[in-house]
Amino acid sequence: MKQAIVARTDIGMGTGKLAAQVAHASLSAVEKTEKSARSEWKGSGQKKVVLKGDGERTLFELAELADREGIPNAIVRDAGHTQLEPGTVTTLAVGPAADDRVDRVTGDLPLY
Amino acid sequence: MKQAIVARTDIGMGTGKLAAQVAHASLSAVEKTEKSARSEWKGSGQKKVVLKGDGERTLFELAELADREGIPNAIVRDAGHTQLEPGTVTTLAVGPAADDRVDRVTGDLPLY
């Protein structure tokens, strides 16, 4: 079981900003996950990988793919108080789900 | 309402690693938070700030302070599959709680 979180590389987020947006996406996708899958993921150490996505379009395409695979996912838009324009898409979390299912969606992306 | 997540600056975490550890701490502290406070935080946009902590000792001291203030908090130790020694303390999440309560614990730390 793992969760993959894709963060955009093309909008110049600072490290702290990026980490907050990753956490936001992670939590949102976990909340959409069935209790049994959630428990299994937590029990196995709640593995997370953070991956690079090259733009907004990539995140939306991967979210659609996750939907088609039936994997819980969540896209985050920044509230825009700092650094970014309000509504900027920043991150996408996919899973938690079985590793091979998550890899079918995000397996081609490089680690952040 | 906000949640502050303190990440160590002294252990050379890469950006993706740091973001994953921040997400882990965030989720763990949210799970310790009472449902009403959790809902209030989410309803107001689940504000998160990521802050710099200069070492393990700082994180433990802040966790103790949060305990004394009655604020939910969670320290994360890395499983150590990559980059860090197993068991390395990486992050501390404080809250969600009212902004002024969180600031009593982490208000002196710089933004990451």
TrEMBL record, chains A, B:
Keywords: Hydrolase. Gene3D superfamilies: Bit1 (3.40.1490.10). SUPFAM superfamilies: Peptidyl-tRNA hydrolase II. It comes from the Archaea. It catalyses: an N-acyl-L-alpha-aminoacyl-tRNA + H2O = an N-acyl-L-amino acid + a tRNA + H(+). The keyword Hydrolase applies. InterPro entries: Pep_tRNA_hydro_II_dom_sf, PTH2. One of its GO terms (molecular function) is peptidyl-tRNA hydrolase activity. The keyword Lipid biosynthesis does not apply. Its EC number is 3.1.1.29. Pfam families: PTH2. NCBIfam families: arch_pth2, PRK04322.1. PANTHER family: PEPTIDYL-TRNA HYDROLASE 2 (PTHR12649), PEPTIDYL-TRNA HYDROLASE 2, MITOCHONDRIAL (PTHR12649:SF11). The natural substrate for this enzyme may be peptidyl-tRNAs which drop off the ribosome during protein synthesis. Belongs to the PTH2 family. This is Peptidyl-tRNA hydrolase.
